[in-house]
Amino acid sequence: MxxxxxxxxxxxxxxxxxxxxxxxxxELESVIGGAEGLEELILxxxxxxxxxxxxxxxxxxxxxxxxxxxxxxxxxxxNETVSEIFEVTGFSDILxxx
Length: 98
Prior knowledge:
The protein is an alpha/beta fold. It has four helices and five strands. The protein has a single domain (2-97), classed as Transcription Regulator spoIIAA, CATH 3.30.750. The longest helix is centred in the middle third of the chain and has 17 residues, at 53-69.
């Protein structure tokens, strides 16, 4: 998995590529955890192949963090496989997906 960061003021876009699973989730969690004072967090999943429960946990944690800070979080570029995982787990109701 690779994570490309694009910061624009108080907005951070993370382009996540590869697999977000037990092995790689801590890396994304670390990147998100180190980003303070954000008003907007955008997770670009257009290059994401797969997400596991560990990846979902990172997303839930990030959503809670942004809510606590009064910011917003959205997930973009979701493919069919990841979209299906979001539907089955109920994450499509929790996250803002564009």
